[in-house]
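note to self — DONT lose this again. spent like an hour looking for the file last time. sequence + predicted structure for the chain T wanted, 83 res
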Amino acid sequence: MARRIGRRPLFFGFAALVCLVLVPATPPDVRWVAWVTAGLGAFWAILLAIEDLAVQVPKRERRFRPGSQTPFGPPPPPDFRRD
């Protein structure tokens, strides 16, 4: 079964890269903020990637015949009785 990494780890990894790119443009007295946010982004990206790889996603069951055009059955016949 192929395992997939979702959007959340990719988002946090990209955010960490953006923070690392901004480190040289940050004033020296607050440069620690860029390093901390890059570290937090990398931390969450790694943890979420581990979670995505560790959790087994069950295969979806087909609830209809493979040759049919729709997953729904035929409609019931109309009821012409008058009460």
